[in-house]
Specification:
mainly alpha; 186 residues; two-stranded antiparallel ribbon; 4 strands
Length: 186
Amino acid sequence: MTAQMDYVRLAQRLPPRLLKFFARYPPTLRSGIGQNGTANSIATSLTTSSTNPDVDHTESTIQPPLQPSDNPNPFKPHKHPETGRWHDPVYSLRRQADLVKLAKANGIEDLLPYTVKGSQEGRKRREEHGLRVKGTGVGQRVKGKAWERTMKGRLSERKKAMLGMPAMVQQWKQLGHGRGWKKFPK
């Protein structure tokens, strides 16, 4: 009984977008298989006669009306069984990412169906491919802006000019303050 109350409290504090998603795609209908490998049921109820406590208790189980193939993953495209045409995912990649962020913030990301936007998939992709930023590999350079690419050469020319400045000032004074001067700075 306390587990059911915990689920009710959890559902009450979920954002409306997650509630709407789980109303349309409940985890039990989506997976069809429970944790112990048996088929999940939507509800198991114990029916008793309230007037006569000696009557046998009968347990009734309602099986899910949809098979997993009838209720495809809303994050993936699927093929229509009758027409054979492909249907787009119900949720776009942006909306998938938003749902994953909301579920992660509320601690229920594991209840979502598989998506490429999930944090587990992101970790797996990072392990396989690394950072994948151009210029971070061995022997690679980041392209950069034009002023960044030419800065090293300009600084070296500026340093060389500053080292030769005393000789240039001396030459300027000898020629008579600009008469016949050909080395005006650009």
